């Protein structure tokens, strides 16, 4: 299981390598480039599933990897 994901801001394209929580979904993330508050897209459980290079740990465990988005 991967616990790090690169979040890419849809507004400014800033990328940040972030550690994912293993026990909860992260609903909000403030972009370090432009300050935009990111929220999950419809149908996603967290910002990592919407904007990350790797889906969150619960999604990884369920077998729905990034390729299924």
What does this structure look like?
This protein has two helices and four strands; from the N terminus they run E-E-E-E-H-H. It is of the alpha+beta class. The protein has one domain. The strands form two sheets. The protein has a two-stranded antiparallel sheet. The mean pLDDT is 90.
Order of helices and strands: EEEEHH
- Percent range for helical residues? 10-25%
Number of strands: 4
Q: Over all CA atoms, what is the radius of gyration?
A: 11 Å
> Biggest sheet, in brief?
2 strands, antiparallel
Head-to-tail CA distance between termini = 18 Å
Query: What do the pLDDT scores average to?
Result: 90
Please give the order of strands in the largest beta sheet. 1-2
Uncertain residue ranges: none
The secondary-structure class comes to alpha+beta
What is the assembly state of the chains in this entry? single chain
Number of domains: 1
In short:
This protein is of the alpha+beta class and 69 residues long.
Give a quick set of tags describing it:
single chain, 69 residues, alpha+beta, two-stranded antiparallel sheet
């Amino acid at each position: 299981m991967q616990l790090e994901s690169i979040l890419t801001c849809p507004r400014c394209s800033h990328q940040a390598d972030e550690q994912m929580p293993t026990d909860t979904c992260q609903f909000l993330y403030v972009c370090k480039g432009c300050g935009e508050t990111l929220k999950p897209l419809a149908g996603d459980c967290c910002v990592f599933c919407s904007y990350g290079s790797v889906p969150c740990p619960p999604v990884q465990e369920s077998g729905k990897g990034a390729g299924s988005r």
